[in-house]
Amino acid sequence: MKSFKNILIDKIGLDEELYFALEKTLIRIKLKKKDFLIKEGETCSFIGFIKAGVLRSYILKDGNEFNIDFYLPDSLVSSYTSFLTQTPSVGNIQALSESEIYIINLSDYNKLLKLNTEYYKFGKYVSDVLFIRKCKREASLLMDSANDRYKFLLTLFPQIEQLVPQYHIASYLGIKPESLSRIKHLTYINEKVLLKK
């Protein structure tokens, strides 16, 4: 959990004693490919940190799946609106590969907040990271072309094409898999032209 420790101590400024108290509350979860971390209709009672593996969140509409986010190693994962409001999740979070996640459940989280107000730094970090990701994705969907959304995805997740099937990436971008193939082909041609100059 070195990267999680680095985030809490170096980025957030939690002291080591408080970090180790938080670490003691973490529960290790292992998922197989296609296992669910949470399903639609369940209430989310955790914030997770991914040590290994890849997950996706998606919603179902009229029998179709629409990917809304991906979670790679060293990232946070939660159905955060459900967590904050303690109402049923509208989406699903599913493992795309064997995954290892460390979670803090809601009751332990609340106990830590009561124990020491310094833990609010952790809460603020979680909300900031998840909120900013959500806003950037929404803005990109509304304002960017499919090609620009693809480039944005690659800046967010540089290794995603090696980790996630193309049809899942296309769903996240809001396009058909064949459209993604065309975008990738044009990107490849443009890069070759630039290299020749």
TrEMBL record:
Lineage start: Bacteria, Pseudomonadati, Bacteroidota, Flavobacteriia, Flavobacteriales
Entry superkingdom: Bacteria
Organism annotation: Yeosuana aromativorans
Name under which the protein is recorded: cAMP-binding protein
SUPFAM superfamilies, A to Z: cAMP-binding domain-like
Domain Cyclic nucleotide-binding: 13-113
